[in-house]
Amino acid sequence: MKNQKHRRIALFVPHQGCPKDCVFCDQSRITGKSREERLTPEQVRRTIEEHLQTLEKDVYVEIAFFGGSFTGLPRSYQKMLLEIAKEYVDLGAVQGIRFSTRPDYITKPIMEFLISYGVTAIELGTQSLDDNVLRLSQRGHTAAQVHQAVQIIREYPSIQVGLQLLPGLPGDSRELVMETVRQAIQMKPDFVRIYPALVIAGTELEWMYRTKQYIPLSLDEAVGLCAEMWREFMRAGIPVIRLGLHSSDDLRAQGTIVAGPFHPSFRQLVEMHLYQKLLQKLVRLYAANGVEFLQIHPADETSLRGIQGGHWRAFQQACGPAQPKLLFNREIPRHQLWLMTSDGAVHKHALAELESS
Question: I need a surface site. Which of 132, 134, 165, 191 has the fewest CB within 10 A?
Fold first, then answer.
C-alpha cells in the first residue's frame, strides 16, 4: 500500500454537520457546492461508478467525504452514505473510506459506529493548537479536544488519523504556528494537510479584513512559513499530503478570494523555496571543490530548477566554469539529492535537513 498509487473518489457534503460558521469558512465557495445540497443514494452511486470507470488498475481507491463535519451529520444520513461506500469496499472495487470532521465530534460511541462500516481514515479540522487562535477563529473547540480526539482514534488501529492545519488565522504568529507543528508531531498523525488562511468573500474574516482587524499572510510569507512547517513534518516522517486549497472553479471565480496567499500551484512554490535554500547551502559547502553533477528524482526537476530555471542557473554560475549537470534517478527518494564533487565523492542531502529561517 505504501508504494501503491492512491486515488480518491471525492463526495462533498459542504458545511453540513457544522454547528456554526468559523470566521474563515464558506464551504459552499471552497467546495463549489451549496450548503443545502444533500446527496441522494443515486448521486452517491453514480459518482462512485463514474470515477471507477476512469481509474487505473492496481491503485488504492478511497471514497472520501469532504466539506463538512461528517460525524455531526444526522445519523441516518451518515448511515446511508457509509452503507453505500461499504458496498464498494465489500466488492473489492474500493479499498478505503475517509472523511473530515471536527475534533469535538469524536467519541468512543461514534468510533464504534464508524468501525462497523470499515472507515479507514479520519481527518480532524484542527486549524491551530493555540486556544486563543481557536477562540478568535470561533472554532468552538480547544486544543485539548484535538489531543483527546487523536487518542480516541488511536484506540482503533485500522483507522488512520490526519490533521488539517490553517496557519495565518487571527491572532496567529510564526511562533504559534511552529508550536502547533511541535504539538502536532507529538501526536504522531499519519498525515497532515496545510491550508494557509484565505479571506473568502462573505465570511466574517472578510469583515475583519475590511475593517483592518486582520492582516492575512502575503504569498511570500505563507510560502516561507509553510516551508518551515513541511520541513519539520518531513524530519518527523509525517507526510504532508496537501499544501494549499484545491483550486476549484468557484474558488478561482472573480471575487471569491478577497485577500490572502492563494496560488494554484502553492505546493510547488513551497518546494521551489526549499530547493533554492538547499542549492544555496550546496554552493557554500562544495562550490570551491568543484561540482560534477546533481542527481534527483525526475518528479522534483521543476521545483529544483525554480521559476524559469532561475535557481538552477544561479547554482551553476556559483559553481564556476565547470557547470555541473543535472541528472535524474528514480531510485533517489523524493525531496532528496545526490551531489558528486570533482574528487569523485558523493554527498547526499535532503530538504528535511535544512535549518530554520
Answer: 132
- Dig out the grid coordinates for 12 from the structure: 462533498
Q: Which residues pair with 192 in a beta bridge?
A: 163, 240
Q: How far is CA 235 from CA 2, 25, 174, 209, in A?
A: 18, 31, 19, 35
What integer pLDDT is reported at residue 320 of this predicted model? 85
Question: Of all helices (H) and strands (E), which one includes residue 340?
Answer: strand 336-341
Place of cell 504556528: 177
Q: For 258-300, what is each residue's pLDDT tens digit?
A: 999 999 999 999 999 999 999 999 999 999 889 999 999 999 9
Cell of 332: 533517489
Q: Largest Cα–Cα distance of the chain, in whole Å? A: 70
The reported pLDDT for the residue numbered 254 is 73
pLDDT band for position 55 (cuts 50, 70, 90):
confident
Nearest in space to 126 (alpha carbons), one of 46, 40, 184, 87: 184
Is residue 200 within 8 A of residue 30, CB to CB? The reply is yes
Q: Which fold has domain 6-264?
A: TIM Barrel (3.20.20)
Q: 244 Cβ partners below 8 Å, 6+ apart?
A: 194, 195, 196, 226, 262, 263, 266, 267
Which residue in 126, 156, 155 sits closest to 141, CA to CA? Answer: 126
Q: Where along the chain do its domains lie? A: 6-264, 275-353
CA 140/CA 103 separation, integer angstroms: 10
Q: Is the pLDDT of residue 20 over 60?
A: no
**Domain range 275-353, CATH class:** alpha beta
